[in-house]
Amino acid sequence: MRSSTGSGAAFFDRLAEPFVSAYRYRELIRVIVWRELAQRFRGSAIGWLWACLTPLVLLSAYTGIFSGPVKISSTPSEAGVAAYALSIFSALIIFNLFTELANRAPTLLHENAWFIKKTIFPSEALAWIALIRALVYAGISFALLVVFKLVLTGTLSLSILLVPVIILPFCFLLLGITWILSALGALTRDVFHLMASITPVLIFASPVFYTVHELPEASRHYAYINPLAGYIEMLRDVVLRGALPDPLVYAGSAAVSLLFFWWGHAVFLRYRSILIDVI
Amino acid sequence: MSSEPMLSSDWMIRAAGLGKAYEFYPHYADRFKQLIFGRFKTYYRQHWVLRDINFVTQRGKSLGIVGRNGVGKSTLLQLVCGITRPTTGEIEVRGRIAPVLALGAGFDGELTGRENVLIGAIMLGLKRGEVRDRFGAIAEFAGLGEFIDQPVKLYSSGMYMRLAFAICAHVDADLLIIDEALAVGDAAFREKCLKFLRDFRRRGSILLVTHGLEQLADMCDEAIWIDRGRIREMGKPEVVAEQYRVASSTERDDPARFVIEEALEQA
Question: What are the structural domains of chain B?
Answer without folding.
Answer: 61-251 (3.40.50.300)
